[in-house]
Description:
Layout: H1 50-53, H2 61-80, E1 106-111, E2 115-126, E3 129-138, E4 143-151, E5 157-158, E6 166-168, E7 174-180, E8 187-193, E9 198-204
Antiparallel strand pairs: 1-2, 2-3, 3-7, 4-5, 4-6, 4-8, 8-9
Amino acid sequence: xxxxxxxxxxxxxxxxxxxxxxxxxxxxxxxxxxxxxxxxxxxxxxxxxxxxxxxxxxxxxxxxxxxxxxxxxxxxxxxxxxxxxxxxxxxxxxxxxxxxxxxxxxxxxxxxxxxxxxxxxxxxxxxxxxxxxxxxxxxxxxxxxxxxxxxxxxxxxxxxxxxxxxxxxxxxxxxxxxxxxxxxxxxxxxxxxxxxxxxxxxxxxx
Length: 206
């Protein structure tokens, strides 16, 4: 086998292989992304991005609004419903007050020999001493009373001119006039039990 030279001998400058066409350019090929070594032939290049694979995010606000609205409805029903009727307090009739007998002068209620009202309807100083008009009421039973008087300044006591013992009962008050021989001065008119124990006293001006 002979060693043939290139270009063949005898083909010099006049040979078409000896000169290059100035307008000739090599063919341009489009650039393609290389295939991964582990990728099978014919498989599609690349894949969807990660965000495309994520499930759509749930919208939370509609659920929250719905729950709040349901709670509001339940509370509204509870507040609107009338409560169970509580025990009604029985209305007690007002206590009947027992009016005191009408008094016209110096008076006090008393107790200690039953109960009632001791009243001085009038008093007069005379040349001989002190005259007192009295009235005694009794709430229950028959009660006996007596009197004495004393000078407020000297504490000297005086008995009625006559032995004086009176009785009173409900509906039958004791009334009358008693006389004391005593000097004129500010004094006290004392109501006592039938045995002489003091019950109460009314002032007498001098």
